[in-house]
Amino acid sequence: MHTLHVELGERSYPIYIGRDLLNDPQLLGAHLTGSQVVVVTNETVSPLYLDRLLAILGERALVTEVILPDGEQFKNLETLNQIFDRMMHDRHNRSTTMIALGGGVVGDITGFAAACYQRGVNFIQVPTTLLSQVDSSVGGKTAVNHPLGKNMIGAFYQPQAVLIDINTLHTLSPREFAAGLAEVVKYGLICDLPFYRWLQEQTPRLLAREEAALAEAIERSCSSKAAVVAADEREGALRAILNLGHTFGHAIETAQGYGKWLHGEAVAVGMLMAMELSARRGWIEPAEVVAFRDLLRVINLPVAPPADMTPGQYLDLMGRDKKVIDGRLRLVLLRGMGEACIVDDATEEELVSLLETFR
Ligand code: NAD
Ligand code: GLY
Q1: What is d(CA 159, CA 185) in angstroms, rounded to the nearest whole number?
Q2: Distance in Å from the first CA to the final CA of the chain
Q3: Under a CB-based contact definition with an 8 Å cutoff, are residues 152 and 145 in contact?
Q4: Which helix (H) or strand (E) holds 162?
Q5: Whose Cα sits closest to atom 2 in ligand 2?
Q6: Residue 340: what pLDDT?
Q7: pLDDT of residue 78
Q8: What's the pLDDT score for residue 150?
Q9: pLDDT of amino acid 96
């Protein structure tokens, strides 16, 4: 097992990464503050891992299991309220610990519930998808969606610990696994060129889910994420680089209806668009865009956005992005390979021309 740390002063916490961590009662036990626990999971993950988690929780005065319907379309205020209803019904108090067992949807909604319930209770992330292990479980962004925009209602709220059991990835579907790899590749592009080059070579081992390769990819991703979050927890500036491809990607997810395009799929195409724009500005070689498209193909990620989306639709949805400040759209681009930057000078003309190329 390897342990990384997110350094945030009194809100610092460990990220445990290893095999069979869901069989280790010590790790979880160290972060449970009271005798009440709420485990939030969903109907897909519960038959796979809930019993194991309950076994390592041991005897507790109160354990409430909340099993949500599965899907991005349920990441909303209504589902959030169902969690509160169960907690109120079972009389959970402020010493309770909420545990998110599942992918990013379960993690984001549970984290937001933990931030709100009685003004904040303890919270542990047990991510079970590649995407949630390398991205959403670390850094304390929690939220639910609004019909007009992704993750629009939420809070920054850090967990007490993140427990990543790599073995859970063996039950993940190939499509979800590929979507997670999109966020892994993101770290290479934004801040770790040697890692990106490693990924270009090692993708077959990752696709075969070789444990050593997976552990390396998860550790390097989490370590980049932890460093960025430690430097800029509430996205004053730097943290926005973690959103490479997300402004285009969120527009795709929202326009298509939540759940149709997976988050990682939309981000993959969004990163391709951001790279193309970076190449047009002369900041990266056009050959890097071609090579990135090839990498996405090998991973089996989409390389073209939905055919029915118009530039006007993107601009409308992108105008609602959380990175818009005082009416100016901010985009994450690459100043060079492995070096993200944030720009606010993209003109409508430049964006329309880019988006037309992808139609
Ligand atoms: P997800 O939570 O929908 O999980 C994907 C699918 O895999 C679901 O059907 C789930 O039930 C299933 N699943 C989970 N673990 C499994 C396992 N071990 N074996 C088999 N099936 C399993 O999607 P995701 O990709 O994990 O997360 C996407 C969400 O994360 C989006 O809502 C996105 O906005 C959010 N996100 C948040 C952050 C953040 O910083 N908070 C960062 C990135 C993404
Ligand atoms: N996934 C973007 C962030 O955590 O900031």
Answers
A1: 24
A2: 46
A3: yes
A4: strand 161-165
A5: 242
A6: 98
A7: 98
A8: 85
A9: 97
In terms of phi and psi (left: phi > 0; alpha: psi -120 to 50; beta: otherwise), the region of 57 is alpha
Res 61: pLDDT: 83
Three-state SS at 125: strand
The residue to which tokens 């047990």 are assigned: 126
Three-state DSSP state, 50: helix
Q: Going by DSSP bridges, is the β-strand pair 13-18/161-165 parallel, antiparallel, or unpaired?
A: parallel
Ligand at shortest distance from the CA of 265: 1
Ligand 1 pocket mutation pick from 176, 225, 244, 256 by most atoms within 8 angstroms of CB? 176
Helices H, strands E: what count in the chain?
13, 11
Report H helices in the chain: 25-29, 51-57, 77-89, 104-116, 130-131, 174-191, 193-207, 211-231, 246-256, 263-280, 286-299, 311-318, 348-357
pLDDT of residue 326: 73
CB 214 within 8 A of CB 205: no
Phi/psi for 25 (5° steps) reads: -70, -25
Q: What pLDDT score does 59 carry?
A: 87
Closest ligand 2 atom to Cα of 228: 5
| Cα–Cα distance, 96 to 342 (Å, whole number) | 40
Domains within the chain, CATH numbers bracketed: 2-171 (3.40.50.1970), 174-357 (1.20.1090.10)
Low-confidence ranges of the chain (pLDDT < 50): none
Q: How far is the CA of 62 from the centre of ligand 2 (A)?
A: 33
Q: Which DSSP symbol is given to 133? A: I
- CB 48 less than 6 A from any atom of ligand 1: yes
Q: Answer whether 135 contacts ligand 1 (Cβ < 6 A).
A: yes
Ligand nearest to the CA of 41: 1
Give Cα separations from 198 to 206, 285, 289 (angstroms).
11, 19, 17
**DSSP states of 253-318 as a string?**
HHHH-BTTB-HHHHHHHHHHHHHHHHHHTTSS-HHHHHHHHHHHHHHT--SS--TT--HHHHHHHH
Residue listed under structure tokens 């342990």: 3
